[in-house]
Sequence to fold (124 residues):
Amino acid sequence: QVHLVESGGGLVQAGGSLRLSCAASGRTFSSVAMGWFRQAPGKEREFVAAISRSGGSTSYADSVKGRFTISRDNAKNTLYLLMNNLKPEDTAVYYCAARSRSFVSIREADFGSWGQGTQVTVSS
Fold:
């Protein structure tokens, strides 16, 4: 399993930007696909973005497409989520997750390792 720790959350005004980071421990980071999910108050956790082990393949939820960019640095064992043009509806706890396969998935059940989450709050 991969141990994951998110950082970079905070309070930002609508239209602003944030970059989330997810530091991974373990030698398997570069071998596995990664993803970002989020959970807003009173809602189910939902898929945000995912990236293959090499970074060559990505997938985004329609609600963030064109605003968010997922990337990874395998040399640093770190996953990123750059969030631009943030909206109040992006307010949520954001989680990074790792799966045991190398290719992208958007299904929460396909991810076996999860971080503790980082809060993102967007004010209007």
The mean pLDDT is 96. The CA atoms of residues 47 and 93 lie 12 Å apart.
